[in-house]
Amino acid sequence: MPDLKTNLAGIKSPNPFWLASAPPTNSGYQVMKAFDAGWGGAVWKTLGIPVVNVSSRYGGVNYKDKRLVGLNNIELITDRPLKDNLIEIEEVKKHFPDHAVVASLMVQSKAEWHQIVKDVENAGCDGIELNFGCPHGMCERGMGSAVSQNPDVLETLTNWVMEVAKVPVIVKLSPNITDIRVPARAAKAGNADAISLINTVQSLVGVDIDNFVPYPTVDGKSTNGGYCGPAIKPIGLNMVKECAQDELVNLPISGIGGIENWRDAVEYILLGSTNVQVCTAVMHYGFGIIREMISGLEQYMADKNFNRVQEMVGLALPNVSNWENLNLSYKVIAEIKDEKCIGCDLCYVACDNGAHQAIGLNKETRIPYIIEENCVGCNLCSLVCPVEQCITMKQIDTGKAEVTWRERTDKDDIPKTFNDELAGGIGHFVPKPGDAFKK
Ligand SMILES: Cc1cc2nc3c(=O)[nH]c(=O)nc-3n(C[C@H](O)[C@H](O)[C@H](O)COP(=O)(O)O)c2cc1C
User: Fold this and answer.
1) Is the distance from CB of 389 to CB of 337 less than 8 angstroms?
2) With CB atoms counted within 10 Å of each terminal CB, which end of the chain scores lower, N or C?
3) Among candidate residues 326, 324, 320, 331, the one with its CA nearest the CA of residue 379
């Protein structure tokens, strides 16, 4: 059997699956129940000066029969007294010494940071996570995502924590920023041991069009919240990749965002995460999903001959780079399996109205067919087709040698300037060399 044990910057856990800081880690009762079910670690619901939370708190986005494709929340940090949480952390560690218990923290002044770090360490936590990601409520007070958005502040606060911390410190980043590498580099400059990402994406999930109030509503008013769940996985994957590839970040990563099953977790690991954290999927389906996650990961690792999770970390990174490095000579076209087609016309309409007019319809049978010379291989028809494996993409031989945008030469049939492309055509629109930047 493969070994699932992981070590994130010195924080050890029996497997790479941690609960993210959120309602499922609100109490010792929940964390112990989760560990019993098989979870390897838990990041405690963010501790600080307890807040008063509102009612209601969550909004959901459903798509057809899939409930909670995205979840939006306007909840703040813990509303339970710090003392109660500390007692429960101690209790959990007594029962589960080999599981990872990480204290998520959010306070303001240097004295508060120093005090709370000591408090949670005394309670026996294995690591600390700094919540620099919450995009509602706390950021209006200069905390949460406001810290990720200001690299100098992030570096300073991280340094304050590192001055006193004895256990490894993870900086949790907000995705509400243009370039995630900026706060990640600031975490490195502040001497953090690891980063985790992503926290929630600032959002409004919808508006009650009868009463003119966005969801969730609190006594007739609302506020922006943080979006999470399957809908944000693509954002999380890309940001993890950005950090994992950046030589100036160079920190272990705990990947978060839309993870529901072992496959999602493997994707995060292949893009550079040492372990993963899960919130929405547990709020939706409960702690029991861990059983399938563990057995699925074990089976995948056995099939691929991986002995340890660490062997998989970042394996997809060499295969993702800038667009300019993609092979422009590579071509796929769509192929339709007539016997599977249900005649819904969705591929025809999508290609005709929204793509390249590369699908025709047989007048009698209404079965679509590919007009190969028009097909650019965009995938759209295969994505809209409701029948599994009815439309697939096949590679065709273009007879052209591999060439990338970056490496193209004069011999390649690829325009290098507007002039090349437009020469001899609508010449009067063609800027002459240097025109564009003339002073
Ligand atoms: C209701 C709710 C409360 C949350 N509270 C916290 C929190 O206290 N601290 C924190 O760092 N993240 C908090 N999060 C964010 C999650 O830890 C996680 O980063 C985010 O939900 C993305 O993961 P997911 O797609 O698996 O839910 C919260 C998320 C939800 C849905």
Assistant:
1) yes
2) C
3) 331
**Going by DSSP bridges, is the β-strand pair 194-197/169-173 parallel, antiparallel, or unpaired?**
parallel
Q: Which pair of tokens denotes residue 267?
A: 């994707």
For domain 6-319, the CATH class is alpha beta
The H-or-E segment that residue 130 falls in is: strand 127-132
Distance between CA atoms of residues 101 and 44, nearest Å: 7
Token look-up 């204290």 returns: 103
pTM: 0.94
Task: Please report where in the chains the tokens 């007692």 appear, as a residue.
Answer: 87
In a 10 Å sphere around its CB, with 0-12 CB exposed, 13-18 middle and 19+ buried, how is residue 142 labelled? exposed
Catalytically annotated residues: 134
Q: How far is the CA of 228 from the centre of ligand 1 (A)?
A: 7
Altogether, the residues listed in the chain come to a count of 439
Q: Which of 18, 21, 201, 227 for mutating ligand 1's site (highest number of atoms within 8 Å of CB)?
A: 21
At residue 17, the 3 state secondary structure works out as strand
Cα angle: 315, vertex 318, 320; to 5 degrees? 105
> In the prediction, which pLDDT does 421 show?
58
Q: Tell me how far apart the alpha carbons of residues 348 and 342 are, in angstroms, rounded to a whole number.
A: 12
Contact 48, 163 (CB under 8 A): no
Looking at domain 321-439, its CATH class is alpha beta
pLDDT of residue 50: 87
Q: What is the full DSSP assignment across 264-318?
A: HHHHHHHTT-SEEEESHHHHHH-TTHHHHHHHHHHHHHHHHT-SBGGGGTTTTGG
In this structure, what is the dihedral angle of CA atoms 162, 166, 171, 172, given to the nearest 10 degrees? -140
The residues with which 72 forms a beta bridge, in sequence order, are: 59, 227
Q: Give ligand 1 pocket residues (Cβ under 6 A).
A: 20-23, 45-46, 71, 73, 75, 77, 104, 131, 133-134, 172, 199-200, 228-229, 232, 256-259, 278-281
Query: Which protein residue's CA is at the shortest distance from atom 6 of ligand 1?
Result: 22
Q: Spell out the residues 6+ positions from residue 179 whose beta carbon is closer than 8 angstroms to its own.
A: 242
Low-confidence ranges of the chain (pLDDT < 50): 426-427, 437-439
Where do the CATH 3.30.70.20 domains begin and end in the chain?
321-439
Q: Tell me, what's the pLDDT at 412?
A: 78
Domain boundaries for CATH 3.20.20.70 within the chain: 6-319
Residue whose C-alpha is closest to residue 267's, from 285, 293, 295: 293
